[in-house]
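Q: Given only this backbone (166 positions), what sequence would you predict?
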């Protein structure tokens, strides 16, 4: 199958759970519904889907919270990153776009749950902006850089990492 050539990877913040998509994912969207807001602790959930047969867990396992009887939300038990959403009767599964190693390649094409969309959502991109380090003191920025426990944006051979993060 030509689909087996595709390998798009992602995982949680700590790296205990890693996955691979073996088909180009489709239907990229953001969902503003109240359940997705809670599940992501955010204003919306960014999601993109593949057939279940094209989803492979390559490290660890998903913890599951059933937000309703038909809906399983998969996350990392270790660090809490939201990773998947699956309706039990569906042949498809969606993954959180932010957990992909290259999330910038998946642009949302639709919005769902717009009845729950934050009333100021369309103003977010016009808020005053700063780069990450402008807020940190040089001392704090150095401490964060020296003790980064976030898994890198690619598959790794060993987890937990011996050197602690990179
Ligand atoms: Zn994790
Ligand atoms: Zn939703």
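A: Predicted residues:
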């Amino acid at each position: 199958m030509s689909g087996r050539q595709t390998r798009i990877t992602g995982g949680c913040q700590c790296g205990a759970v890693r996955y691979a998509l073996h088909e180009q994912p489709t239907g990229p969207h953001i969902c503003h519904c109240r359940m997705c807001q809670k599940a992501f602790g955010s204003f919306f959930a960014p999601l993109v889907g593949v057939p279940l047969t094209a989803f492979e867990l390559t490290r660890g396992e998903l913890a599951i919270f059933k937000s309703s009887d038909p809906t399983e939300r998969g996350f990392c038990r270790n660090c809490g990153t939201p990773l998947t959403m699956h309706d039990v009767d569906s042949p498809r599964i969606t993954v959180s776009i932010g957990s992909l190693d290259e999330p910038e390649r998946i642009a949302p094409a639709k919005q769902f749950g717009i009845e729950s969309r934050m009333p100021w959502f369309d103003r977010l991109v016009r808020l005053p902006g700063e780069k990450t380090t402008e807020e940190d003191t040089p001392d704090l920025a150095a401490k964060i850089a020296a003790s980064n426990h976030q898994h890198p944006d690619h598959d790794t051979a060993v987890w937990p990492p011996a050197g602690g993060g990179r």
